[in-house]
């Protein structure tokens, strides 16, 4: 759970952002008068008819599966430009750079996007260690780093120190809490083995889970970590299999998620309830293992699954299917990475449309003032909310179980802002 310190910091930061909504700081950082105009604010990358956004993804390297996400983003922006004239008359130019999931390279590409391409904002930098490195640069240079593609709690934890950065998806702390609550309810004496990536991403989700089960009958009996540069998690899986755990919490990125699922399936002597975090729950992770080998695994979701037939007649899904086929022909629209990109691009459209000032300061004011805003493909009951006491846009999740060839939602959406 977030601390009172974080919430008080958010109040202070929100006041600073509100003051800059139509006043703010110029290129030299000087504060201008809040006189109802946008004079003196940063207009790099935005004109009356165009706005330039930059994304940084691992198009290569061990987490290159995420390189599919910007294809969904681009399809949405192409549709928006062609059929709606962009946002408020501004067409979106979207530039994608490859960092190979290497933090130094992430900063290099952020500099390139800001100082050479002159983007208005960094949108959807992907990954916790990579986006953490970019965050320091972005806040030093007063460049919006909006809707980071990572659930690390740090994106909203200190808006005073990092007023130019904000996340989007549910935090890993919240996701960990959801799994803990599920086990407390369904398996109150569970013995849990945990595999997690040895960085802020893995540690955040683990922390949320461990804090949730504290004082309950659910216990952690074994833990193993891995590095993003490791070739395999097979040694870790062998160690965990000998732990006597009856639940396995799999906190991995796609490549290692597939490896852990395969190792679990191959070890017939160990048959734990397998919980896999949202990051590695895509069908592109499960299919190589074999759908028959991943039956009844559990995860959590905040987006509609394009492979789920329950959304076949859903207007938002129908629009996604049709426009992806039109603007990104040949791609498998059932791939959840494309729908994730589509949904996040829709969220960016909402933020750009809400700007009172067409400036970098105006964008940050807009993303910190969201109230029950929907983006296409969010699950029913999931909306974006930020404000003086909350720097986390989406904090609602719903549990799901894999059966047959698709995920099936169960229970009700859980707003972790309200969950006890």
TrEMBL record:
PROSITE patterns: PROKAR_LIPOPROTEIN (PS51257). This is Branched-chain amino acid ABC transporter substrate-binding protein. SUPFAM superfamilies: Periplasmic binding protein-like I (SSF53822). Transmembrane segments: none annotated. The keyword Disulfide bond does not apply. PANTHER family: BLR6548 PROTEIN. Residues 51-403 form the Leucine-binding protein domain. Belongs to the leucine-binding protein family. It comes from the Bacteria. Residues 1-23 form the signal peptide. It holds the Pfam family Peripla_BP_6. Keywords: Signal.
